[in-house]
UniProtKB/TrEMBL annotation:
InterPro entries: ArsR-like_HTH, HTH_ArsR_DNA-bd_dom, WH-like_DNA-bd_sf, WH_DNA-bd_sf. This is DNA-binding transcriptional regulator, ArsR family. The keyword DNA-binding applies. Residues 1-90 form the HTH arsR-type domain.
């Protein structure tokens, strides 16, 4: 059975988050990315491939070099997931605020 990789797995790892941050500003080749980490190029390549598999980046071959480009549309999945809980907590805090206002009015 093939393991599927999703956006949440991608952003769960600090190395992958750092790679995402690096690619947010510009396209980089894998060697340029690997120079920023204290790990083997192969280990960085595995992280890059993971991000590619999740759809957060695309890898384009130019000659002997592989260039990575950000495709952050998939991050909307994370935003949508977070927003559902943001709405929940906003409602809870609004209810708490209403309750506290009610208590303050009774004290006066």
């Amino acid at each position: 059975m093939k393991q599927t990789r999703d956006i949440f797995q991608a952003i769960a790892d600090p190395t992958r988050r750092q790679i995402i941050g690096m690619l947010a500003g510009k396209t980089l080749n894998v060697n340029a990315i690997a120079r920023e980490f204290d790990m083997t190029r192969q280990a960085v390549s595995l992280h890059v491939q993971f991000l590619n598999d999740c759809g957060l980046i695309v890898i384009k071959q130019q000659g002997r070099e592989r260039y990575c480009e950000a495709k952050f549309e998939k991050l909307n999945e994370v935003t949508d997931w977070v927003n559902q809980y943001r709405k929940y907590w906003d409602n809870k805090f609004d209810a708490l605020e209403g309750y506290l206002d009610k208590i303050q009015k009774k004290k006066k």
